Structure formats: structure tokens, C-alpha cells
Structure prediction request, 225 residues.
Amino acid sequence: MLKNIDLGEITPENQPKVIFFDAVGTLFGVRGGVGEVYAEQAKQFGVDIEPELLEKCFIDSFRAAPEAAFPHATPDQLAQLEFDWWEAIARQTFHQANVLHHFPHWGDFFTQLYHHFATAAPWDLYPDVYPQLQRLQRLHIQLGVLSNFDSRLYSVLKALKLDHFFSSVTISTAVGAAKPDPHIFTVALAKHQCPPHQAWHVGDSHKEDYLGAAAAGLRPILVQR
Prediction:
């Protein structure tokens, strides 16, 4: 829950100008876990595999992947770079699970899988999020999303009916730097013309969100999901 944000503490004297939120693990999570979603999608292509195995293989593959940040990418290149980055992780996941060779048309499968995560279907919006964002909005605090995600985040926020809360969305792939790198926080702050000490950042990762925000001069708030 976002119980870490005590609205009783927000007064005219200490009210932040902007509060940034991480996305996955903070606002919403993967329904049933990545392994379950991957397994469901694979079954549509005739490949049966245990979700638990895929979950483990995905975690290993995701942790071994480079940062989702492309500092030299042009806007025209970004979509393909994001697609290729996730394709490599998915390929390694199914390879490690020893079922990659079971897909006669891997490209078709991954394309469907990739676009599936741009919809509301694989995501669960945490029940405390919507009322908390409404409360913050009533206080006229600017809200932004700051995430190590890709361009699909815009579609996901819209599909989950969250987009209207946020006046900025900052993603690592477009910025070319991923949390905890201070640069992504600097870019997000600039969108609101806000100095770090007037901003909070809410997230579920101790390293990326809490320590990253603190190092950049923002007030960090760690969510225990």
C-alpha cells in the first residue's frame, strides 16, 4: 500500500511541488507474475510450460540484461531498440527454460507477447493507487511517472485510466539513463521546473527508487508491496 505517504504530514509549509511515481511494482504489477503471462501466451502457440520455471528464467534473464536506456538513440530508432531489448530477454528466458526450439514462428509469438504488455490485460492496478492519486490531486500537487520502462507505458497508463493524473511521464529508454542514475531524475524535474528539494519520488526498489532519488536530492518514499 501507499501507506508510506502520510497525507496528514502534507501542510502548506512542506507540501511538495511534484511527486513522481515509479510504475511497475508501485502503481501496478504483473497479474499472476511474468511467468504466468508468458506461459499463457505460449500456450496459444502450442507450447506448454510451467509458469514457475518461466518466472525463474525471466528473473535471471532480466537481471543479466543491460539497462533499458539508449543514450544515442534518435526518436525514430527508439521503438525498434525497445522491441529488440525485450526480445533478447524473452528469447533468453525461453532458451533457459529449454523450450525456445518449440516455437515454429518465434517472431510471431514475441510480437504478440510484446504488444500484449501494452494493454491492460496483464496488469493489476493496486487498489490503493487510484484513491491516493485523487487525494494528491485535490491538494494541487503535480504528479509524474518516472520509470525504467519503455514507450508502451503511455498505452498502459491510458488503459488503466491513470494517464489523466500525470502531467509528465519520464522513461529510461527515451532519456538514455535508468534509475538510480541522477540524470533521469534531473530530466523529470526539468519538466516541472522544480528543484530537487521540492520533489518526492515514490517507488518499490530500494536501490533504484529510494537511493536513486535520495542521491538526486529528492525526498525518497519506499513502497512495501
Remarks:
- Confidence is low (pLDDT under 50) at residues 1-8.
- DSSP finds nine helices and seven strands in the chain.
- The first strand starts at residue 18 and ends at 21.
- Residues 75-96 form the longest helix (22 residues).
